[in-house]
Design goal:
This protein is α/β, with parallel strands linked by helices and 212 residues long. Helix content is 31%, strand content 31%. The protein contains six helices and 13 strands.
Length: 212
Amino acid sequence: MKEYKNVTIIDHPLIRHKVAILRNKETGTKEFRELVEEITTLLTYECFKDIPTKKVMVMTPLERTEQTMVVENSIAVIPVLRAGLGMVNGVHTLFPTARVGHIGLYRDESTLEAKQYYCKLPDGIEDKVAIVLDPMLATGGSAVAAIDLLKEQGCKNIRLMNIIAAPYGVETVAKAHPDVQIYISTLDRCLNENGYILPGLGDAGDRLFGTK
């Protein structure tokens, strides 16, 4: 795959370990959901490294000191329904005050194109750092559609966080939105004829919510 400046692959032993368990078809729903949250928390460290901050004065037991804090109400996480919901708690573990919006998209099985059916975003989304969450980046269609929608709402600072991605999906998003930083933990081999990632982990939504 061609290298893109807006793509960050976070290759870490802890993430590789957790992804290996995540892939296993014998991993149950409860453990799968916990692993998705844990991997998301690890990805959040990197994704949040340059979010808006401010200087504040704090009184310790000994003296006043200047400290750095994240600007209140500056972050919104936007899970792509339904699988993206599984990543929200992973972000909230580190930053529990992040606002949450929702974008509902489904994939047309005949064309593989993303179709919108729901959208509810926090007020003032145009002034926030909007972080789109989706465990899988396959064809890239859903991610591009979600980012398109956010830009239509005036968002200027958008990031995308995925656990597993296919080269095709990464290239699709990187080309369509070169101003959007993409954070992924694992780059897989390819897509199969049905648009699923190989080796992948199956349908993330079904495994998160036990619907298959």
